Amino acid sequence: MTENSGRRNLRMPNSDEVFAVVTEHLGGNHVQLQCADGEERLGRIPGRMKYRTWIEQDDIVVAEPWDWQDEKATIEWRYTSQDADQLRREGHID
């Protein structure tokens, strides 16, 4: 975090990843995602995140759509509410 502006360097999506909003928690390790590219996908929470990072409805995440099934994606990162606010201020997400 820089001292003057309060801005943090955040993880941004790679070329094969998109921003997404969790619209519904389906139970287990599955969530419904509304992706920034306009698609609605079934998101899978990987085991490395399942018990360490709690993902809830309305969270902003980075999702990687599957190559072989575009209607599904793996969640790669979850932003805190402060990080999501910064992304909105900078115009990365709506």
Automatic annotation (TrEMBL):
Molecular function (Gene Ontology), one example: RNA binding
This protein's UniProt keywords: Initiation factor, Protein biosynthesis
Segments forming domain S1-like: 6-80
Classification via Pfam families: eIF-1a
SMART domains to which the protein is assigned, alphabetical: eIF1a
Signal peptide: none
Family in the record: Belongs to the eIF-1A family.
Function: Seems to be required for maximal rate of protein biosynthesis. Enhances ribosome dissociation into subunits and stabilizes the binding of the initiator Met-tRNA(I) to 40 S ribosomal subunits.
Matches recorded under PANTHER family: EIF-1A
Protein name, as recorded: Translation initiation factor 1A
Source organism: Natronococcus pandeyae
Gene name as annotated: eif1a
